[in-house]
Amino acid sequence: MIFMKGNLEVICGPMFSGKSEELIRRMKRIQISGKSYLIFKPIIDDRYTSKQVATHDKRTFTAVPTTIDRVGITEMEKMVEEENPEIVAVDEGCFYDMSLTGSVLKWVDQGKRVIVAGLDKTYRGETFGPMGNILAHADEVLKLRAICMKCKSNQGVMTQRLIDGKPAKYSEPTIVIGAQEKYEARCRDCHEIEKE
Ligand SMILES: [Zn+2]
What we know:
Rossmann fold; binds zinc ion
């Protein structure tokens, strides 16, 4: 065989489970090995900095910020075509348009190692954006758990959204960047959705 296809790795879990840390760990190894890479991240908020993949303890890696819509994904495809990196990483893949899956599979078919990190589920406990589809196509999946902030078990697989200290309702929008809302990891038993 002359042409080898690549592979798809997914790093997922709830908030505060260490997804960005794991992505940075892999990217550091890629950097040491001298391979070429591109990292993308969505422009959705101004947490810390827009051009870097930041972990909650503020360690960073330079990433290309793109919008989460089809336009942003087309930009990504263009950059990948022009730079032809060996590795393509997407942080916070959950926030992108569903069409991200097609782009990811295209890069894998071109022989690239593709790494997608993101929340697997919304605060409602439903699959988040394209992550369900991307997970189905993954060759390797790392599901991380966080500490449940209510019972302190290590079974935190859910993201709890709190608005003014109370569990968010099901009908709240999925992405809201506001001051009064807060997220924490919870286990299935402690995860709450406010009754309408
Ligand atoms: Zn718990």
